[in-house]
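Entry 14. Structure prediction run on the chain below.
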Amino acid sequence: MAVAFVRTISRGSRRSILSLSFHLSNPRPFPPASPIALTPKNYSGPAFAPFCGFLRPPAPCLRCPHRGLCGIPRSNDDLKVAPLAPPDDPPKKKGKSAKKKSRVDFTKVDPTLLPTVILVGRPNVGKSALFNRLIRRREALVYNTPDDHVTRDIREGIAKLGDLRFRVLDSAGLETATTSGSILHRTTEMTGNVLARTKFAIFLIDVRDGLQPLDMEVGKWLRKHGHGIHTIVAMNKSESLDEQGLLTAEAGQAYTLGFGDPIAISAETGFGMAELYETLCPLLEDYMLQLPSDNHSRDVISSDAEENGDCKSPLQLAIVGRPNVGKSTLLNALLQEERVLVGPEAGLTRDSIRAHFRFEERTVFLVDTAGWLQRSGKEKGPASLSVMQTRKNLMRAHVIAVVLDAEEIAKAKTSMKHSEVVIARQAVEEGRALVVIVNKMDLLRGKHNSILREKVIKAVPQEIQTVLPQVTGIPVVFVSALEGRGRVAVMHQVVDTYQKWCLRLPTARLNRWLRKVMSRHSWKDQATQPKIKYFTQVKARPPTFVAFLSGKTHLADTDIRFLTKSLKEDFDLGGIPIRITQHSVPRKAELSKKSKKPSTRMNVRILSEKRVASTELVSS
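Output returned:
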């Protein structure tokens, strides 16, 4: 019976299969209409009689109405098929693919002309986490301290949100009800001064805690100090509430701030960055289109110019030292503005603040580090993170300025303590240039302190040379950062040290210098004196030299120290770590090179028999 059923289907479907192949090869669009309606005309027949009790009409196929049971079209059935509506376009995915491209190419705009966006809010709402998310680096310290402020200074960076580029500022947590002169009062004043120079602000609130009274006070403070600033409310830490569907209720509370529609984001997971892009994009585009188009180009420094020491390439300067020696005051004096928070409190700086300015047509990047130079195991929380961040910034710098306290030197009669010596030696081992700055010289004025001042000026360079014998001629500058004295002298010394650090000497000049130096050096045994074939510089920043020796003899440590000292004295490389390596050339290789000389060819002229006979006749 089953065989008869299959035969019946195959016989009656030969003609329909041909029509099916035609329909598949030439599909026709369906006009829009109501859903499909199938009405079979006849399901009777001798082959279908045994199955009439359980056989059901085949389920209609919306995409292929001409198919029947098992996908085979029915030739004997007249189907009244209503026209199909065309399939809807697949929904576009929300995310980066759904973002519209900006009308302005922010990647080609000079960073100094980019719009500025400041992050404001009460403490511990995630401003530093959002700052790190926008700049795509972990630069700002992030630590959960509800009762304390981790961020105290204004941190600046270039945000990268899709194809948008803008300057983003991370500010300290705002608390309006503070006593005058306290740290919170000074941070609030600094945030207000920076807010006056910006056009856009992102007001962050913690959606987990809900709208707090302090958030309402910060909103009032923004209306008072931020005239003409477009403020965007961002509900941070919304990743958990998005699953529970509680964002609608929290958004209703955020509306009471009076800054428009809030945006649900999560700085930790990246949730809501697409909505933040859609909100910021038209605002930043309108800002850039109002600027003159001639100033949008970026000044690019070629890579070849950066390798040369004489170019005006950017300079990385890190200011290090123990707590309360005047590092932040020195940075403000160099920038000539109140850029970071200063005060008599020790350990006031926690974040490593990065700033830049122009000095003699050169871009200088300054990094003010925290006052913890080495980890003693007692620091916890933000203090421990500050130590790690300080050591990381030291490795990025070109020149390291170690700041000392003149008053403590006069009292303790020692220039550098153990922690300062450790960080200076680490900088030398990493190949960084070193400059020592003695601050607070204004405290050693007067008739009673004049003798003490002269002793400090005379003793500090000598003691530094004793403590750091690896580097000779370390420059020492005596300044008063509070009064702004010595600012130009510091920058001239830093630039001069940086140029020495980038110096490249030609090989011919080095070999002429080597012959003079080797002649005046006293060797213990002339027979075992190493023979230096030639001397060349293979690398700068720091200067690295290679001495090629003939034979198996090597330079002793005393010989390398002699060459290093002679290089610093003859080429004025004080304060620069110099590295000298040696490479021996075996004598067998030299002999093999000499033996492999090109052989000279002998042009022998062969005479023919006729010429030989003629020459014999002439000779006879």
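The two ends are 128 Å apart (CA to CA).
Filed with the rest of this week's runs.
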